[in-house]
Amino acid sequence: MDILRKMLVVTLFCLAFQGFAAGTIDINTADKETLMAVKGVGEKRAGAIIAFREKNGPFKSVEQLLQIDGIGPSTLENNQELLTIGQN
Asked: What's the fold here for domain 2-84?
């Protein structure tokens, strides 16, 4: 049982940080935990990002994050190399 628990933890860890493997986080597909790895984005803002894309569809640009309350230009600037919209 202990080995199964360890395997589950490792699997969840890998899934949560899948964007880091490529060096980026796709804001159109990242889950809440992955979005919380973005500097300046906590649980509330990560939830707001997910809610925004569920309501409005995929982000067309990273700059659209500015439409989310609490995300400003400094957040984008501090994470410009990390954030992407993927293959859209």
From this structure: DNA polymerase; domain 1 (1.10.150)
